[in-house]
Amino acid sequence: MKTVSLEQELNPWEAQAARFDFAAQKLNLDEGLWKILRYPQREIIVHIPVAMDNGTLEVFTGFRVQHSIARGPAKGGVRYSPDVTLDEVRALASWMTWKCAVVNIPFGGAKGGIIVDPKKLSLSELEKMTRRYTAELIEFLGPEKDVPAPDMGTNEQTMAWMMDTYSMHMRQTVTAVVTGKPINIGGSRGRREATGRGVMINCDEALRKFEMSRESTRVIIQGFGNVGSNAAKLMADGGYKIVGIAEYDGGLFNKNGINIDNLLEHRDRNKTIVGFPGADAADPRELLLADCEILIPAATENVITSQNAAGIKARIICEGANGPTTAAADEILADKKVFIIPDILANAGGVTASYFEWVQDRQGYFWKESAVNEQLEFILREAFEDVVHFSDTHGVNNRIAAYMLAISRVAHTIKLRGIYA
């Protein structure tokens, strides 16, 4: 891949495009299909007026990008963050296309976001903003069009507001318009833990490949939100030794393993992991470079870059977050023979369980949690095998193999459908 500046390296759209181009080249993808798949199908920008609690009016900028609907309705989260950009949303939408194709579920890719710090808004202001954002996008959403889900800064309540707003406009209850909802309004059991569970399933597959055991595997997790905390809890319960946790405001390290149940209680009580008595304080940036068998970046993009990749000691990196490793860092890690489970496979447990939720809403029949987890494990194990097989067959790393697998599936669908003109 070509040399780029640090600014380009950290641009998620540029990073995604670099991986796509390389994988498409390896596939000898038809030039026309290359052009179709490289860019989003639709990009929507909305400006959302909100009557604030103090009587003033504020206008927030929101996005929804639909990258592909070739294999089914667009699917992807909505994030609320002051750092949201159109390039980021574009990249995340395209990653969703590839992620759904890697696990072979019938969705395309989309992503949404609003430039806002949700911590600075009251519950009432968040509800007004969410409902107006949904209303502005109403003609583009629907169970057969585009199905949002929670992401950074959003949650089950956000999805309940979106579902209700859409339903009011449709004059009927449409539970399948979003996923990640509360269970009593059409949510799925096991959905909240699914991304973290998927991380563990992928780690289990990597251990099987390298003939390693859970008990002798030290794990460091960067990010202790929904993905990181659920992965930590499930993996600790399963016998993995969680020796490090890194968060934005501090880190923890205990070579003998951190008691995750106690840490979760501490976090819920104090709203931070800092000050937990069962581990030593540690610099979160240095934890990424500490000794371990598995490193799980589970927070945000661009955590592993050309600036720190050479210092990583983990044998396996399992990407719980979207885009945590830059393209430049990939090349350094490849030279170090680090086994990377790429984001579009590693964190696909969430969208897979969202697919189950969508299916259940459309059936009007809801599954036991054990059935959700069983189906999740089956799909992710099969996807892991497919990616590793592609990697071995084509002589590329796992990330490019995952892209090649996904691109080939989407391109094949487009060729079968043809181009409407």
Notes on the protein architecture:
- With 421 residues, the protein is α/β, with parallel strands linked by helices.
- It has two domains: 43-185, Rossmann fold (3-Layer(aba) Sandwich), CATH 3.40.50; 190-421, NAD(P)-binding Rossmann-like Domain (Rossmann fold), CATH 3.40.50.720.
- The chain contains 15 helices and twelve strands.
- The protein has helices spanning 6-9, 12-27, 31-38, 86-102, 123-136, 156-170, 194-210, 226-237, 260-270, 284-287, 327-335, 343-346, 349-363, 369-394, 398-417; strands spanning 42-51, 57-68, 74-81, 108-115, 146-150, 218-222, 241-247, 250-253, 280-282, 294-297, 316-318, 339-341.
- A seven-stranded mixed beta sheet has the order 9-8-7-6-10-11-12.
- Helix 2 (12-27) packs across helix 15 and helix 7 (194-210) packs across helix 8 (226-237).
- It is globular, with a radius of gyration of 21 Å.
- 52% of the residues are buried.
- The model has no long low-confidence stretch (mean pLDDT 95).
